[in-house]
Automatic annotation (TrEMBL):
Coiled coil: none
Matches recorded under Gene3D superfamilies: Jacalin-like lectin domain
Residue ranges, annotated region (Disordered): 700-739
Biased composition (Acidic residues): 722-739
UniProt xrefs under Pfam families: Metallopep
Species whose genome carries this gene: Heterobasidion irregulare (strain TC 32-1)
Family matches, as InterPro entries: Jacalin-like_lectin_dom_sf (IPR036404), Metalloproteinase_M10B (IPR053002), Unchr_Zn-peptidase-like (IPR021917)
Name the UniProt record assigns to this protein: Jacalin-type lectin domain-containing protein
GO CC terms, sorted: cytoplasm
Amino acid sequence: MSFPVLDNLADGDLIHQRFVLVTGTISSLNELNESASPYITVDTLSFPSQTFPISPETGAWKALVHLQPGPQTISFTLNGNASATLVVSNVSYLPLLHIAPLHLAIMVAKDSPQWMDCPPDKAASPSHRDLAAAIKKMRMWAYMCQAYTAEEMRKNGFGRRRSVSARFRLEEEWAQDTLSIADEEPTWRVTAKVHTIKSEYTTAQIRNSNLAQQNPRAGNKDGLYNYFHQAIGRYAGPFQVFKGESEGPVIAGLILDSHYDPAHDLITGHAALGGTGGEHGKVHLGMFGSHTHWAWPRFVEEMVPCLLDATRVTARSGVGNDNGECGTYWEACCIGQGAALHEVGHAFGLPHQSSGIMSRGYVEWNRSFVAKESYSARLKTPGRLSMPAKTSNHWHLADMLHLAIHPLFALPGDKPRTSTKAAISMQPLRDRVVIKSERGIALVTWTRNGRLVREEDMRARGLLDFVLKLDEVHKDFDETDAKREDKETPVKIGLTVTAGDGAQKTIEDFWEYTSEALVTLPGCEFVVKKKSVMSGGPEGSWGVWRWAVLLTKLGKKGQVIRAKKLQIQRGAWFDGVYVHYEDGTREIMGAKTTAHGGEMQLGGGTTWLSIGEDETIKSLKIRAGEYGFVNEVKFVKGEVAGAVPNGMEELKPDEGEKIIGFYGKHQHDNGYCPTLEFGILTIPAGAELPKEAYEIPALRNTDGGSAVTQAGGNGEAQGNDEKDEEDDGYISDGDEMEE
């Protein structure tokens, strides 16, 4: 006789979330031939019985199992045969009420009809389209996400026992539960709370096409994000942020009044955005529209049917086909639920990744919950009776490393959490690149022209530093490039290093980065070495501006003129530096012009640093921000530099060398040009630069690499020595978000 076999649950396991995603098989496939639709029944004392399908090909199955606080017994029965039952005892659910929760909120227009888009076959009654339905669906989605994330973390080793895994907590309350349609009468349980918050804007304003994220002509694609933050601020309650608090709430937000406009084939009232903003810039919001909500389950009993429903979405359905990937009902459910979790990922501080949830891997959301699959309109593939071993629907290792130290994912006994991460140091040399992190090297990822080539999980090696030998990297990519069909497209090799705390550093063009690591000098036995901190931020639509500035310059008569002070400009981010020389001229460390040719004026507040005749800059301390830009640069004089603050990286010359200047890279946009890279230039301590060095392009700030030389090169007068720049640069309201 065949029995259920469990992969990830055992007697005595301790769970910290209300639902656990259990996976398993059956001991023998022979009996499956006797059942056209084999299934597993899950019984607990705290929740109605639930059934889940078994793959008739492999015997694999997945079940979303409800737990009540305290110890309990769970039964798994094959095909309703009481003789084929597996009983798991003493499984304990312990809610962690001391951990801050993820909040759920629905924003409703002030004159909202409180109806969501719905295909005709589901629109006959309000049960799938009114506000009550939206609340049920959001609650069910939240528990699916919680269970899924906990299982992802568990199977990747983020926990102290088999089933104790890092996961987020939901804000819950004692209320009438809605998670099972089989409850015979109103049943009260501790269940997820969904806040309904009213916007001050009308339905028409929310559905304005100028706010629609998918409208290529929209002029205010961030508008709905601001609307939601405004509604959160007025609602206050648990969303209120008090001055001095280090962190605000994390909120998953649904826009109820999204609507598909068939006349323009446009989904209005929808924007998928996540990040940080709102009051004091500390409210973390992941926001999404309700345009796929009709496809989401309301109850546990609807989860499997919703993820297997192959009903086609057509022009007569009256709903939007988001990104062309919602051609069937089950695919609409995947895109909607997965994209919503993607935005919550941004609210947790996660960037986009090369694969997984943060890279649209949620198109296979169903494969984490069901053991078989229906016809796919996206792929034009027939249904399958079993699932592949791998799926694109996963949390990337870098994401899990980040979440494992996030305050909302703490486990009992963990040390107090902080969002600050340790720096990753990269030092390119003649034949190698040395990479270091005090939190250890966890993952190395290579891309070719932005597409993932390979990833190496290095956690088991326990390395705080490692070396990439350039000849070995050349060999690896020369061999794989020889097999490429498209050999005419220029190849850009990218490298991303992930540390043990989830911190990441990305080199967009590895060969460019290593080739610029040294500057040779005519007639000299020594070279100029370069060390930098790179933020990993985007290069922007206008490219980048590369620069170098020396702490000395040549006068008109060939005499060496030294820098006497630095004018450091910093606002929301680090803006740049003006170097003031003894002859009254100055040079800018940063972009000299905007992308449209206007003169760059560094904004933010000003800090002055004088450099005496016998003084030198000994080191830099640099903080690179989570959202891709350098936030802070400290110039250190004197022999005693002091401790390096957590989250900052220190750049120092090698032993026997000195700093002679600085170099970097800025995003070159029209207006504020944030810093992507900042570093030091060094030579042997007893050496001096030859006069020819002052004309080497790699040691000057001229055209930023655009081949159009701007007026006022290295050493040309650009302004009054003593004039303090106006604060006319970038002004941030604290909003940082991603799609």
